[in-house]
Structures are given as C-alpha cells and as structure tokens.
Amino acid sequence: MNRLKNTLLGCVLLLTLVSCKSALTLNSGAVDQQIAIDGSEVEWLNDLQPIAEENFAIGILNDDENLYVSLVTADVRVRSKIMALGMTLWLDPSGGSEKSLGIRFPLGIIDAGLPFDPFTMLEQPEFVEQLFNESLTELEIVRERDEDTKRWLRSEIPGLELAASSKQGTLVYEMKIPLDNEELGYSLDAANVQQIGIGLETPRFQREEMERLREQPSASSQGGGYGQYGAGGSGFGGSQADVGGPIPTDRSLLEVTSPTKFWATFSLVAP
Question: CA 121, CA 222: separation in Å to the nearest integer?
Fold first, then answer.
C-alpha cells in the first residue's frame, strides 16, 4: 500500500512539474551592424539559436525602431512545409501565446495556385525554388479574433521588410518589423514591454490536398537536410539515404504536412 501511495505521489509530482514547465525564452540582442533583409543568413551567423525539437534556428535582434527576426533551416521536412504551405509569425506584447498580431509570409506555393507536391521537393529542388520565389510577392496581416484578414503586396506597408529564399537545401527567412506602426495597429516599447511572446506556425494541410498527393505516383527520395540548422533531420522515410533512397511513405508524408506550432518569449533590448 505504501509503495502504491508513493508511486501515485510521484506521478502527481511529475505531472505538476511538467504542467509548470516555463515557456522557452530566447536571447535577443542589439543590432551592431546593418542588416539587409535579403534572404541571406550572413548577418545572423553569430545570433542564431538552434531549436533542436523543431529542426530550425532562430535569431532575434532589435534597435530603437525595429525588430528583426530570422529563421534558418536545412531540414527537408521543415523547408517543405514552409515553402508549400507558408508560415505565420505571431507577436503577443503581453508575453504569452495570444495571437495578437500575425504576419503570414511566405504565403506558400499552394496558396499561390502553383503546382507542388512534397516529392517534387526532392526530385526537382531547383524547380521548386523557382516556384517558391514566385510565391513571395504578397503577405497577410492576421489576427486571431479578426475575421477580416488583409492581404498586401510586400511593398505596401511602410517600414515592414520581408524576405525568404531557399538555396542548396537551406531555407532562410528574414523580417524587419517596425516597433511602432499605425498600419499594423500596434506599438512595442522596449522601455515598458517586459516580455513579448513570439510564435511560428504553419497551417494544417487540407485533406483534399492530401488525397490529391496520394493519387500521384511515388518517387524515390534523397536524404534530408543536415548541418548546423536542422541537424539530424532525415529524408522522407525517417532514415539517412543517398539519391535513390527509400520511397516516401504515408508516415513520412504526414511528417511534412503536420502543422508546426512553436511559441517562445523574448525581451527587447533597451536602446
């Protein structure tokens, strides 16, 4: 009886510890050089923080006027999701995970009405990169409680700069966001805002798209992205493989099409 009691108490304690686990806190830094929003990771190499569970690295910087965010990944599954389905960056000035302001960019190849399936990513990477570049002309401003999602050209919102690129197996995402912007309807003050919640989310793959992909013939795949950003990410099929490796399976397809939902907090650096 005592052993059972102790076991139950241990389980309760474990569940309590898990439930009380604090959100991930990211390091943010001051801008010490000019950052060109051009889809290159060169300026970010010393400021990227690997997120092992998500197979990407993220960087956050700010000056007295702008917030800078970068994401870099060499994992084929993460790249496929972002390139095909797009991604939304969420900001919560209260430091939580409320979807106060969302900037959806890129919108994704499928949203642009361009032909794509995950197998093409492996078989014809240069063709997919071309499709991805063609899908980068617009963005959406979204709010969880606002049904009126607005779509803009990239150049239409003053001060907001966005870029994304996929070259040689690495995807780079950059965003420069004004701390005070009437068009977006928010203001972030480094002196008064203690913590800010930041989220990265890819949409759920629609069932009809999944059925369409299943009807297409499978193709052999190569290994996934390896290296500093997304290390350990394997190719479709879940194992390291050379060209002509494992045939993509329903399980590996599910890994590509399952949504990413990442939240963390950070603090602005006072100018």
Answer: 10
Buried-state track 228-253, b at ≥16 Cβ within 10 A, e below 16: ebbeebbbbbeeebeeebbebeeebb
In a domain, 262, yes or no: yes
Q: Is residue 179 part of a domain?
A: yes
Kindly list the distances between the CA atom of residue 80 and the CA atoms of 29, 36, 241, in Å, as whole numbers in the listed order: 29, 25, 18
CA distance 87 to 26: 19
Residue-wise pLDDT for 214-253, tens only, equals: 454 433 333 333 244 453 343 333 332 222 233 344 455 5
- Could you give the number of structural domains in the chain? 1
pTM: 0.77
Q: Which domain holds residue 94?
A: 23-266
**Residue 131 resides in a domain:** yes
The tokens for 24 are: 């991930």
Neighbours of 99 (CB within 10 A): 18
DSSP state of 33: S
Tell me, yes or no, whether 163 lies in a domain.
yes
Contact status, residue 10 vs residue 251, Cβ threshold 8 Å: no
What lies within 8 Å, CB to CB, of 117 at 6+ separation is 213, 216
